[in-house]
Amino acid sequence: MCSRTMASKTPVGFIGLGNMGNPMAKNLVKHGYPVIVYDIFPEACKEFQDLGAQVTESPADVAERADRIITMLPSSPHAKEVYTGANGILKKVKKGSLLIDSSTIDPAVSKELAKAVEKMGAVFMDAPVSGGVGAARAGNLTFMVGGVEQEFNAAKELLTCMGSNVVYCGEVGTGQAAKICNNMLLAISMIGTAEAMNLGIRLGLDPKLLAKILNMSSGRCWSSDTYNPVPGVMEGVPSANNYQGGFGTTLMAKDLGLAQISATNTKTPVPLGSQAHQIYRMMCAKGYAMKDFSAVFQFLREEESL
Amino acid sequence: MCSRTMASKTPVGFIGLGNMGNPMAKNLVKHGYPVIVYDIFPEACKEFQDLGAQVTESPADVAERADRIITMLPSSPHAKEVYTGANGILKKVKKGSLLIDSSTIDPAVSKELAKAVEKMGAVFMDAPVSGGVGAARAGNLTFMVGGVEQEFNAAKELLTCMGSNVVYCGEVGTGQAAKICNNMLLAISMIGTAEAMNLGIRLGLDPKLLAKILNMSSGRCWSSDTYNPVPGVMEGVPSANNYQGGFGTTLMAKDLGLAQISATNTKTPVPLGSQAHQIYRMMCAKGYAMKDFSAVFQFLREEESL
Amino acid sequence: MCSRTMASKTPVGFIGLGNMGNPMAKNLVKHGYPVIVYDIFPEACKEFQDLGAQVTESPADVAERADRIITMLPSSPHAKEVYTGANGILKKVKKGSLLIDSSTIDPAVSKELAKAVEKMGAVFMDAPVSGGVGAARAGNLTFMVGGVEQEFNAAKELLTCMGSNVVYCGEVGTGQAAKICNNMLLAISMIGTAEAMNLGIRLGLDPKLLAKILNMSSGRCWSSDTYNPVPGVMEGVPSANNYQGGFGTTLMAKDLGLAQISATNTKTPVPLGSQAHQIYRMMCAKGYAMKDFSAVFQFLREEESL
Amino acid sequence: MCSRTMASKTPVGFIGLGNMGNPMAKNLVKHGYPVIVYDIFPEACKEFQDLGAQVTESPADVAERADRIITMLPSSPHAKEVYTGANGILKKVKKGSLLIDSSTIDPAVSKELAKAVEKMGAVFMDAPVSGGVGAARAGNLTFMVGGVEQEFNAAKELLTCMGSNVVYCGEVGTGQAAKICNNMLLAISMIGTAEAMNLGIRLGLDPKLLAKILNMSSGRCWSSDTYNPVPGVMEGVPSANNYQGGFGTTLMAKDLGLAQISATNTKTPVPLGSQAHQIYRMMCAKGYAMKDFSAVFQFLREEESL
C-alpha cells in the first residue's frame, strides 16, 4: 500500500471513457498522472494513446499495471461486469489497491462490490459525481464519496484533479445514497416548479414576476432560482434553448429508478419521488428522452395546436 | 375618492379579528389609524374597544363609516357572506371605497367579489399574506396584491403598516394566484425534502451531513436550508420542537385544496401538487392536523413501536 | 301537484338538446309525451318542431307551460343559469312542479339548486345518467336519482322512458355522488388495467392470455373483462377501433374534476382518484381529448418511433 | 428424465415449510407422494417426520435424493440462496430434474435461476400461487406457470395436488409476471374502491346501496363485489372481522415492490401501481402491516377521535 500513498505520480487506471469518463481522465493527464486506460469500445481509447496513455485489453490488465483505478460506467450491470466479470479487475487486482467507482449505481451494488474487493485485500470507494459534461471538462465536478474514512485522503488526492468539491459521506454506498437523494429531491422540486409556474401563468400571472415572487418566498428552490424551466424567465439555461443540453430526461429517469429501487429495498415510503419517476418515465415514452429534464414544463403544458 | 387619498388618517375598517386579523389591526392602530372593527364573535372586538376603536354590528355598518376596509377571513364562503350577505359590505359601501381582502381564497371567488364591488362603484383588491402569526405581530408579513394598478399605491399605504413586503402581482385574483402557487411548490418541496432525508438516513447517511450536501447541490430548497423537517438538523424550527408552532398541516391542506380547485377549473395538470394535497389530507385524517406541515417527515417515518 | 301525478301524458319540458338530450327527448316523444323544448342553440330545437314539439324562447317559458321538466346540461354553470338565471326556470316555475336535472354536476350545486327550487314550492331531483349516446338512443341509460323519496315514483315514470335502470340513491345530491364515485373508480381501474396489461406485455406475456388470467383472478374488473383497453384483446370496444367512439377522455377528465372538487370540499383523501384526474388531464394536454378514455393504454405505451 | 415422468410416485422434494409451504407439502403427502423436506428452521420439519417424510440437512441433500423439487420461499434472496448457495440445490442436482419454484419473486431472478439450472442439465419453472393459507390447505390454489411448454404437463401433475387451477403463462418468468400484474391491478382497484366508497359515504350515500350501484355499473371490480373493504357491506370478508385474516398489507407491499422493480427494469410507466405501492408502504409504517390489505379503507378514513 506504501507505493500508492508515497509516490503519488505512479500510474492511475481509468476504465470507462464515455461522455463523462473522457474529460475526467484527461484532467488526470493534465495533472501529470500517467494513465492506463480501458474502454469496451477500442476507439474510445485512441485519443488517450495519442496523449501517451497505455491502452489495455481488459479491466484485469488495468488492475495488473495500476494500483489506483477509477471506473466511470453507465449502470449497475456494467459495473458488476468490470469488477467481477471474466476479465474483470478482481482477476488481477493487487493487494492494497484503491478502486474508486464514480458510476451512479444502486448503493446495494456498491456494497456488494466493496465486499468482493475487500476479500482480495484491496479498497473500494464509491464516488459518484454531480455536474454534467461541462463540469467534467472544467474539472469542477462534485464527488460524493463513500468508504473507509482513513482512505478518503488518498481518494481525494485523485478526485481533486477532476472536481472542485470532494465530500466524504460515510461508509461504502453513502456516496451513491447522497447522489440519489439529491437527484430525487431535484426531480421533485423541478416538477413542482413547472407545475406552479404553469398554474400561475394560467391564472394570469406574468412568468418572470411569478419566478421573482417564488424566489423571495418559501417556494424558492434551485429549480426556480437557478434553472427555471419556463422559457423567457432566465438566460443561459436549457429552457432558454429549447431544452437542449443540460441533464437529459432519460438520465434523470435512470437516477429516479435507482432511488425507487433503494426505497423499495429499504421499505421507505417516497410518494412524490415515486411519482416523479413515473412522470419522467412517461416523458421518455412520449419523445422527451433526449431533452433536458426541465422540459417537464413543456410536457405538462397544453399543446399549441389544441 | 379624494377623501381617502388626500387625508390618509381617516378611519380604516377591519373585518375579521382572528389569529391573524387581530395583530394586523393592532398594527394599523399603532400607525395612528382610527379603526372601525367587526367580527362575527363580539368578544373578539372587546380588546379593540379598549384601544379606542369603534365596534360595529355588521360589515354593512363598517362600510357605512369607513371608505377603506380590510377583510381577513378564513374561507371563500365567509368572504362571500361578508361582502354580499344580507348585512354585507355591499349593502352600504360608499362609491370610491377601497376594499382589500387579505383572506386566502379561491381566485375565482376574488374575481366574483371584485365584479360585485365594481358594480357599486368601489374598488376591490385581493391581498393575501405570506407569513404566520409571528410575522403578523412583528408587522413583517408579505402581501401579494391583485387589482387595478392605479389603486396599488393607496393599498400599499395601509398594507405597509402590517407588512414589510408588498408586491403587485397583476389584475384581480393574481394575489391569490401567487400565494397558491408558492404554497403548492412549498408543500411539494417540503414533502420531497422529507422523503429525501428519510431515504438518505435509511441508506446510512448522517442527517446533518445530508442536509449540508443537499444545500450545496441542486436539491437545495427553502425546506431543506431554512426549515429542515428532520429533528436535530436545525435549531429554531418546528422540527426542533416536536412540530409545534409554524404553519399547521390543516392550513396547508386548505391552501392545497385551493390550488387543486384552481387547477381543476383551468384544466391545468398538477400531478405532484395534487399528490401533495392528498398526503396532507391523509395526515389530517391521521392526527397531524394541528402539527406544523414539516411533520410530514414524521408521518412518512416508520413508527418507533414497529 | 295533482295534475302531474294523475294525468301522466300532460306536456313534459326538456331543456338541453345536445348529444345526450336529443335522443333522450325523442324517447319521451316516442312514449307519447307532448314535449316543450328549449336549447340555447335554436337550431337544436328544429328537429323537435318537426316532431310536433312546442319550441320556446327560454327556460322560463318552458316552466310556464310544463309542470314536469327535465334538464340535460354540460356543466354546473350552465345548470345554474338555466335554473336561476335572468330567464331561468325559477322565474316562472309553478308550485308543485317536478324538476329533474340529468346533468352531471357538482353535488353541492345540485343541493343549492334544490334549495332554490324548494323555496318556490317545487320539487328538484338530480338524476345523472350512466351510459353514452348509444344507450341514450336505445333508451337503456341508467339513472341515479337523488331527492325526496316520495317523489321518486313520479320521476321514475318519466325516466323509464329513457332508461332501463332507475335507481333511487337518497337525498338530493346523492344521484350525482353515486355517478361521480362510480366514474372515479372506473377511471382508476381503467388506468390500472392499462398499466398491468402494459407491464405484463413488456414482461413477455401474451395480452389475450394475461386478460384471461386477470379476469379469472382478483384483478378482474369491468375495464379488464368488458372494455379491455389493449387492441386485439376484445372486439366491439373502442380499443378495437383506434379508440374512437365510447366515452371521451375529456368527459372523463370533467367527471374526475367533479370528484376532486367533492373530495376537496368534504376533506376526503382520494390519492388514486386524484392521480387518475391528473393523468386524464395530461392526456387532454397531449392530444387525446377526443379519444375514448381507454386510450390511456396508448398514452402509457412507448411511442412506435422511439 | 424417464424416471420422473413414468413413475410418478417417486419421491418429491419440498423446500420451505412456512405458512404456505406446510399445507402445500401436506397435500402432496395426501396424494400419496413420498416427500423429502428441508427448511431453514429444523422445527418446521418435525411435523413432516411424523408423517413419514425424510428430513434433510440442506437443499443440496434434497437435490441428491429427489428429481422433482418444489420450492416455496419468502423472497428473491432466499430463492437465490436455496438454488445457488453453498449448500444449494445446484450443488447436487441430477440431470433432468424438474425444479418448480412457487415463491413470488422478481421475474428477472427467476430467469437468472432458470439459466443456472439449465447449465446443470435440469429444468426450472416458476409457478407462483394466488390464494392464501386457506386455499393452500383446501388445495385450491391457482398456479401461474412459466417455463418450457413441453415440461408443463410434468409440472401440472404435481401442482394439481395443491391447486385447482394450473395456468400455463409462457416462457420462464411469465408466471411471476402474471402474478405481479394481477396483484398490482388488485391493489389499485382495492384502493380505488376504498376511495370511492369513502367519498360516497361522505357525500351521503348508504354504503350497501353504493356498493350495489358500483357492482351493476362500470366501476365494478373484484374488490367491490367480492371483497368489499367497508365494514357492514358484506359478510365473510376481512372487513367484517376488523381486517383480520386475508392477505396482509405487508405481503401486498412486497408484491407491489416486485411490480415496481419489474417496471423500473423494463422502463414501463406504472403511475397508479407506483402510488399504490407507496400507500401500502405508508400503511406498513403506520401500524397496518399485519392487517388485511382491504384495511386501506380504514387508513383513508378520518380517525374516530378527531
Entry keywords:
3-hydroxyisobutyrate dehydrogenase (chains A, B, C, D); 306 residues; 47% helix; six-stranded parallel β-sheet; 3-OH-isobutyrate_DH-rel_CS (chains A, B, C, D); 2 domains; 9 strands; Rossmann fold; homotetramer; N-(1-d-carboxylethyl)-l-norvaline Dehydrogenase, domain 2; alpha/beta
What does this 3D model show about the protein?
4 copies of one chain form a homotetramer. With 306 residues, chain A is of the alpha/beta class. The first copy, chain A, folds into 2 domains: 2-172, NAD(P)-binding Rossmann-like Domain (Rossmann fold), CATH 3.40.50.720; 177-300, Orthogonal Bundle (N-(1-d-carboxylethyl)-l-norvaline Dehydrogenase, domain 2), CATH 1.10.1040.10. Chain A contains 14 helices and 9 strands. In chain A, the strands form 2 sheets. A 6-stranded parallel beta sheet of chain A has the order 3-2-1-4-5-6, sandwiched between helices. In chain A, strands 7-8-9 form a 3-stranded mixed beta sheet. In chain A, helix 9 (174-202) crosses helix 13. Chain A is elongated and about 65 Å long. Chain A starts with a helix and ends in a 6-residue tail after the last helix.
